[in-house]
Write a structure and sequence with these properties.
11 strands; three-stranded parallel β-sheet; four-stranded antiparallel β-sheet; 2 domains; Ribulose 1,5 Bisphosphate Carboxylase/Oxygenase; Rossmann fold
Length: 229
């Protein structure tokens, strides 16, 4: 059943002409009529069907304006790196005993970082970590000798960009409470990352077919990209 709040929102917004994100921000924020600080989200439909197979995007982007979320970060490392991890702001730090807790299903964290030396042991927990999207990955910066940098990035605004099997990518550019400058910086950081991914995959034609923007409990608008990707 549609709520009274939702009925007051604009109708058929997806039928409107696409507008650039800077012109849409005021509309998106005005639709945030709930009591909590809603996220402003992007949804990309990518051209992942290619003659030489499907294109799978999986990378990370450091959002300069932050995410507005507190992320609980865990680190699996050697004992001599434990203090470095704690000093960087890791919430949970451990080695062999911590791995045993993870094996038992104790997943009280949202991001897991690991040193290359401990990854051999952690890689055996694919069935536990894989389905939750928690398995550390060198490409995503979560397997690293530089624990301080990895933890700092995870805490300060690093998000993963990944398409599903239908070629859809969902990512937030921040919260309603963010100023427009923060949101625009995050938006452009995401586009720059997707542009690099297009180059890395040597795609033919545009990578992005359609882009939509919405708030958590709001309605969707077509986004006109500032450049072709």
């Amino acid at each position: 059943m549609t709520s009274k709040r939702f009925k007051k929102l604009p109708e058929k917004t997806r039928d409107l002409n696409a507008e650039t994100i800077d012109k849409l921000l005021a509309k998106l924020k005005s639709n945030c009529t709930t009591k909590f600080d809603e996220s402003l989200d992007l949804s990309f439909q990518i051209n992942n069907k290619q003659k030489k197979g499907e294109v799978n995007i999986r990378t990370v982007v450091n959002l300069p304006g932050g995410t507005g979320k507190k992320v609980k970060v865990a680190v699996v490392c050697e004992d001599n790196k434990a203090q470095e991890a704690k000093d960087a702001g890791a919430d949970v730090v451990g080695s062999d005993e911590f791995i045993e807790k993870i094996k038992a299903g104790e997943l009280n964290f949202e991001k897991l970082i690991c040193t290359p030396g401990m990854m051999i042991k952690l890689s055996k927990l694919g069935k536990v970590l894989g389905p939750k999207g928690l398995m550390p990955n060198p490409k995503l910066g979560s397997v690293s000798e530089n624990i301080k940098e990895a933890v700092t990035n995870a805490k300060s605004g690093q998000v993963e960009i990944r398409n599903d099997k239908d070629g859809n990518i969902g990512v937030s550019i921040g919260k309603k409470s963010f100023n427009d400058d923060q949101l625009l910086k995050n938006y452009h950081a995401i586009l720059d990352t997707l542009e690099k991914e297009k180059s890395n995959n040597t795609l033919k034609g545009d990578l992005i077919k359609n882009t939509f923007a919405t708030s958590t409990m709001g309605v969707s608008y077509k986004v006109k990209l500032g450049k072709a990707i």
